[in-house]
């Protein structure tokens, strides 16, 4: 028959699944757990070996503890340094095994394989009906009947076997926990005999008690190991028997070619699953009460909040980071050409650049001063995303090729002195130099004057003595070479503030331009100009009025709500704190392509909720965030040196920050950085807490 090979493959797969379950039990219980128990037994047996024959010399009472290997002090040392570590190691293995089974991690592969195999079976299958055994009528040809094969296997086989696998993991976890508890009782037995040894005054009595305790513990461990092995065999036998029965129930009608029986059983199961009238009414009443509560509870909470704010005068607080961190799926909600407009500024499109004369004028003046032959340098500071790179690019574009300009964007790979010197030598054509001092000596050999822009300069600085010395060497090099090179250094504001205190940073630059937060009007103009280039329409979704206002004025909506667009940009100014990059991120997170028109951008209201992503962080975690804000990218070792925590080090704190999606780790050096969408909110919060 056509189905027979398929049944055979299904049976072979199921036998392999049972084998994998046996291998899982062997590996987790027989291999790891029983292996740990065996190690405990061997450790105890080693202490039972007879001591070496004592030398025939006169032994005084003071030599008693050395003469008897398991005397008072020796017995305590054996217990603490040999026996107890073995017991604790076996208990930890048993506890980890129980946790793996309880959490479903151990059997996850079995459940995944079961679900995938059933899902790969055909939805419908035409099964030949078995011919009736009759000699009167003439035998007719085979009659085929369509049966829902996947549904049949899922309900009759997959669901029960899934329950069996879950029961298998529950029993395996219970077995491991019981073994760990029994091992703890064995340790108590040894502690009891230790008490007797310490309390006894005669060496022979102490040895006898110690050997008795060891022998008793060995018997208990061996009995526990044998009982656990027997329980594992029984557990696997139970699983094989029960799961084979479920497989036989599922395949029996298919092997016998009884499609009518398959359909009847499915219909009966569907009828049993259909609730009775009484149950239906009860469920309907419960669902109605739940729906009423679901609708009323938010309104009651909103009314309570409005009343509290009316009485206390508390204004809404914005969750600065919650929205950004949840914005990983924003790529699929907007057209790619629209998203590109809210990235880097294409300088060729003049409509997309918003002039900032207050910042452009001092930058342009530095270029003019240096072109006149005077020595000078430019430092541009500001938070990440404030527009430092765009500002320098705009001023540089006005030179029209008058000067050779070299741009070096620092990253973790260039954070050392030798690597940065190699990059500067390659950019300027200088012979190779391994230090800043050597670069300053070799630079006059190339001749000519040029501009060198160093971006992300904060990554050169680490808040350690070595980091300060490296930064001082860099500043000395800038001072020594500012006649041949126009240095334009872009640095994050937190690092620049700290270096201004430690090294008096402004003394090494002729001009320091601070890119401060922009106003809401500037941000709105920037966003609307970019959107205008896209060609899409723009609509803002109205925000629901507060509950008290809706109760006071139920029919006058126009005077209750301000203009949605005006309200949105007011909220944006508060949320992004004037950071341009964060403002663009919030726009992309809030914007949607209108599904009705497909040529309009619909902007959702910004949330008015209290942010809590950083409220429950520990002080070391906030210090880690402060270090990453100031320095850009650091290794775990550098963070440990900066934060200087005790105990388990900084590793657990970093792991928790990664789980909270605040910190990313990548690259060949394993450098830790702040998540790009969290840089602005974290900086804003830490500055509000006066930590930077």
From TrEMBL:
It holds the Pfam family AAA_22. It comes from the Bacteria. Residues 374-494 form the ORC1/DEAH AAA+ ATPase domain. This is ORC1/DEAH AAA+ ATPase domain-containing protein. It comes from Nannocystis radixulma.
